[in-house]
Amino acid sequence: MNDRGDRQKLLEVKDLRVNFKVKGGAFTAVRGVSFDIYKGETFGLVGESGSGKTTIGRAIVRINSVSGGEILFKGRRISGRITRELDREVVQNIQMIFQDPMASLNERAKVDYIVSEGLYNIGKAKDEGARRAAVQKALLDVGLLPEFASRFPHEFSGGQRQRIGIARSLIMEPELVVADEPISALDVSIRAQVLNLLAELQRSMGLTYLFIAHDLSVVRFITDRIAVINKGELVELAETEELFARPLHPYTRALLSAIPVPDPIVQRQKRVVPYDPAVHDYSVQAPSWREVAPGHSVLASDEELARYRDALERGDTLAIV
Amino acid sequence: MQENGTILSVKDLVIKFRLRGRVLTAIRGASLELREGETLAIVGESGSGKSVFTKSFIGMLDQNGWVDSGSILFDGNDLAQYRKEEQWLGVRGKRISMVFQDPMTALNPLRPVGRQIQEVIELHQGLDGRQAQRAAVELLERVGITEPAMRSRQYPHEFSGGMRQRVVIAIAMACKPRILICDEPTTALDVTIQAQILGLIKALRSDFGFTTIYITHDLGVVADVADRVAVMYAGTIVERGTAEEVFYDPRHPYTWALLSSLPQLGVKGKPLYSISGTPPNLFNTITADAFAPRNPYALKVDFVRQPPEFRVTETHYASTWLLDPRAPAMEPPAAIRSMRDKYVARSAS
């Protein structure tokens, strides 16, 4: 996953801005966000609640409209006004998996309908036989039995329901899957099953993932690169192991220090560093998005950038966990 | 009789519920000892019974549930014998307090938070009016709420999730409880807020000197707070020991499975250890080891007889036939071995 020079950019997010109308004005949920996702990788977008991470995911699948900047899929703009054909293509190629498997499935529909709803919408299945076969295959792919098709969501456990959610997106044969906290509502043992399934599907189908989460330690296990977002702005982006070895932005460092590690001795020795936005002196110069080392970008002013580069050059111990 | 230093002692507790005309056994003979001043974490997945277990210490089982047998000794009384609400009033919220996952369920949305704390103080400490009001503001300050006097006049919806949980903790502290039960207190919060709340509870523990029980599924939180750990599965405690013993030298295959399935302990690019199947149906009578059908390390006897609790050390116990002297030696999964090796290497250096 290293040689990125010849890898294809599947998704490009450029200077993205998303505003929401609120009483008496607009609220900017996402501001100046730029990143690329390469074909075949798992890209993690990590932030706390209200950071705008879900809004970005929803902007990509065209649920939220974009107020500024643009989103390109395979080089073509898919944000803003686009043709009906392109919209259909986006629906098919970019699918989303949601957090809460208890809330995201239609309680009154059978699994058969839930899984194939997307096919109906884009008229992908040629006939009833083809549709049935596609549902069967999708269910088998996620480790469920084809006969589950005739049951209702309430008959399933949380882990099984999340599999149904995954089957529903896979049936579209997408290239990019936006997974929004797909395991945070699940029990520990079920999480492992779903993570294994996602990894397996990536290998067998060549999927690309945008994995949205709040827990950096879980994301470490499955992602190739991670972007950290705070209050609507990206603060740091790097390859996963680089981010854990050399976290630079104070917010990333605070986030890493706050996650409890399941190892009592390590955890007791770890010091939690809170994030205080006052550490940034942006009175002289506003921060911008800069590359501090190849593949490692930070939101910083000139002065901060110089300091980060020094720390990297000196080989300071930066790792927190 | 309670031993020295033991504040609460639960023995062979069985709790049942009547549901749609059938009887479900949620707690199937659980025993536990809580020592004065310690922090005990009860770990388990949803449905393991960890919440029901601790709710029975404060008489908060749902209407359709009851303690069927066993004892809960606390301050010389057997709480398992309590049947009347009046009996509980001297315990619940007074000597044993509870903090829940969702602070909104514990707060009255229609009253200012200061009033809610004041009420508890008036009821339990006998202070009135001004004095109680002042004490409420002091408590708010103590749990880290800035401008406590102004904030005390605000309503719960004017607080963020983390601040609301601080208010709930202030209410729990209002009667200086001897035991504080924290049921997933930070599950709904962001990690940075979670760290603050866990830190706050630790700080209060040393000031107020209470004993803490945490109920959680998050093994990171357990590692952070716990002196001792009890692992629950299908209504019984399958393993208990110090945090070091349970994390670095676990003996029960369920504890192995729980720890090895953590992505934090996984090796990138390799599948995580995962537990197949589902927990047993607690409507049925379970006579064998409840974890056996999902346990790749199960012995024949696991399908026939429930294992007793075997002693590993003075502080470490596990209910698995693997600890029987006649059982074949079994190596735990890779993630567990590597945790153990790291621990051994660390203590050697």
Which terms summarize this structure?
heterodimer, A: 321 residues, alpha/beta, Rossmann fold, 2 domains, 8-stranded mixed β-sheet, 4-stranded antiparallel β-sheet, 11 helices, 36% helix, globular, B: 349 residues, 12 helices, 12 strands, 32% helix, 22% strand
What string, H for helix and E for strand, traces the elements of chain B in order? Answer: EEEHEEHEHHHHHEHEHEEHHEEH
Largest sheet of chain B: 8 strands, mixed
SS class of chain A: alpha/beta
Unreliable spans of chain B are none
Name the chain pair whose interface involves the most residues.
A-B, 38 and 41 residues
Please write the CATH class name of the largest domain in chain A.
Answer: Alpha Beta
DSSP summary: helix tally of chain B: 12
Number of beta-strand segments of chain A: 12
Residue share in β-strands of chain A: 15-25%
CATH superfamily (homologous) name of the largest domain in chain B:
P-loop containing nucleotide triphosphate hydrolases
Number of helices of chain A: 11
CATH architecture of the largest domain in chain A: 3-Layer(aba) Sandwich
The name of the CATH architecture of the largest domain in chain B is 3-Layer(aba) Sandwich
Global mean pLDDT of chain B: 93
**CATH-derived topology of the largest domain in chain B:** Rossmann fold
Tell me the overall shape of chain B: globular
Q: What portion of residues of chain B is helical?
A: 25-40%
| CATH top level assignment of the largest domain in chain B | Alpha Beta
Radius of gyration of chain B, Cα only, in angstroms? 21 Å
